Amino acid sequence: MLNSLSGRFLILTTIFVMLAEVLIFVPSIARFREDYLLSHLERAQIASLALLADDMLNPDLEKELLENAGVFNVVLRRNEARQLMLSSPMPQPIAATFDLRDASAMTLIKDALTRLVDTDQEVIRVIGAPVREAGLLIEVTMDAAPLRAAMVEYGIRILILSAVISIITALMLFLAVRAFLVKPIKRVVGHMQNYAAAPEDSRRIITPGAGIRELREAETALQSLETELTQALRQKERLAQLGGAVSKISHDLRNILTSAQLFVDRIEGSDDPLVRRMAPKLVGSITRAVHLCESTLAFGKAEEPGPTLARVQLAETVAEVIEAERLAVDGYDLSFAEDVPAMLTLRADVEQLFRVLSNLVRNARQAIVASGKPGEIAVSAREDAEAWWIEVADTGPGLPPKAREHLFTAFQGGIRKGGSGLGLAISQELVRGHGGTLTLLHSGPDGTTFSICLPKNDGTL
């Protein structure tokens, strides 16, 4: 109970209301003391009127008047003359004098608090202005003990009333908080627990329904989070299923390609010059496909194997990629350009670098062919003291907005209609394996340019 939000709110509300009542109590007790003293001055003035009506009062009547007024002596100043109207023996000398005529609020509060804590039996003098302007001033002497007793009794009543008000107020606020805050929060917590039990079930995603704006904003944010998480889990499940399917396909495809490799070995013995020229390239392509299938079977997961770094003549790899793509153009008005220094040698995994460049050039070729317009694909390279730089540029129509938004995300960053987006995702992962970066430099109606940066250092300091 005390550890709950509503329980703590109940305690804090009670404390704050009591604190407010204490702040009200201080001026209230000061006002009570002032009214108490003024009432005694008024009663003393009324008692003195009897003496004005009859100059001679018997001692018993005078004593009764003073007792009714609750004072020992009454002094009245009229016409600049100070006159002792009523008097009786005082038990002790006057300890303090209080003038109520021009007393400030702070003075009244200070005197009231002093009287509350002072338990001594004292006689005090009180000066005030007569009611109905019946003189210049009236002065009485009185016992301070009854005053303190009355103040204590009044204070106890105020504190009891404050406690009752605090409890009632806190209880009402407790019920209000429980109805308007705690229950909606528990509802959100219940939705979260229900969703956590089966996050793949979209029916468990929370539907915002809180009437409080802040809670509704929290529910809306939670709904968005749960929706994205559910989609991610479904995507992960699909990827896992796809991985299993790819492993099975790769197993059978490896066997088929191994058989094809045996046939190509025989083709190499042909006397046809064209066959003899194309056979090594066919062997190289089949060998790469076999290696890829073997890698898929060996790892059986979404991660690529680490690169086997060696010195690579970049011009030879680029020429091989472009020659393979030229065969795929089949007479289309598409030209290729190479600007790679013949002696440029970099450190990379030749098979993985071939796959990266092949993916980029193939994407460019497919984009230009899909546009139905002539175009050009250019591969250039350079190096500096820190890294090797390779750029693949085309004059195609540019990437669509969705492709730019999810450029390197598998199954979301497809460049062409029907594409899976795996090419760029795989290429980025392979480049990262080399410690480098694959970035989109430019994409617009005038074409697209990708840049590959491969650092020259080995990652050590």
Descriptors for this entry?
single chain, 461 residues, Heat Shock Protein 90, 5-stranded mixed β-sheet, 10 helices, 12 strands, HisK_dim/P_dom, kinase
Structure description:
The protein is of the alpha+beta class. Among the domains are: 5-171, no CATH class; 307-455, Heat Shock Protein 90 (2-Layer Sandwich), CATH 3.30.565. Helix content is 57%, strand content 17%. A five-stranded mixed sheet has the order 2-1-5-4-3. A five-stranded mixed sheet has the order 7-9-10-12-11. Strands 6-8 form a two-stranded antiparallel sheet. Strand 9 and strand 10 form a beta hairpin. The longest helix is centred in the middle third of the chain and has 55 residues, at 213-267. The two termini are 58 Å apart. Its EC number is 2.7.13.3. It comes from Pseudosulfitobacter pseudonitzschiae. One of its GO terms (cellular component) is membrane.
Rounded average pLDDT: 79
- The Rg value, from CA coordinates, equals 49 Å
* SSE sequence, one letter per element: HHEEEHEEHHHEHEEHEEHHEE
> Low-confidence stretches at least 5 residues in length (pLDDT < 50)?
none
**Helix/strand/pairing category:** alpha+beta
